[in-house]
Amino acid sequence: VDPFLVDAGDAVGVAEFLNSRVQGDDLVIVSPTMSWMVNGRVADFQLAAVAVGYGTPHIPADLPAERQVFDADYRLARFVVVDKLWHNWAQFNVPGVAEILQDVAEWPLIFESGDVQVYENVEETVFQPD
To answer: What's the pTM value of the predicted model, to 2 decimals?
Structure first.
C-alpha cells in the first residue's frame, strides 16, 4: 500500500495551508485521506470525475445531480490537491482522472508538501458565493 499512502506530516501541512485560505463555500477536490481535515466543500477525485460525466469503479456516471449536496465539477473548484493516490491508482483505474490531472497540471502550483501538490484554479468559472 505504500505507493498510495500520504505521509501524515505532509497531509497536515497541506490541510493547514488550505484552511488558512479556504473561504466559505470554496470547493476543494482532495483525496479522502485528507478531506476530513479540510474546511469548505470537499469532494474526492471520483466525485469530480462523475461530475464531468465519467463513471467510476464506485459511482455510476448516471448518478443524478440532485443526489449530490453540491456540484463537484473540478473546474468549479478553487483548489485541487493531487497526491500519490491520484498518480499511482486513480489515473489508471478511474475514468476521467488522467484527463483531469492533465488539465489541473496547467493551473498554478501554489503549495507542495512531500508528494502532495496543491493547485489553484484562477479561471473565472470558479464558484463565487452570493
So the answer is: 0.85
